[in-house]
Amino acid sequence: MGTEDLGNAAERMTGKVKEGVGKLTDNEKLEAEGKADQMKADVKQAAEKVKDAVDDAR
Q1: Which residue from 10, 12, 32, 57 has the fewest beta carbons nearer than 10 Å?
Q2: With the C-alpha atoms ordered 16, 32, 29, 41, is the resulting torsion angle positive or negative?
């Protein structure tokens, strides 16, 4: 796992925590921020996989 992967994993986990705290405290804004953080991490991860696949194909 590279440093970018660890960063994405950390961002995803932070998003999960925010989402969970938002649900527990009935804070819709925090819950939405958590979901957005998770989605950003997923998009970054997908972009890295595409980049790696292109690099491998060369």
Answers
A1: 57
A2: positive
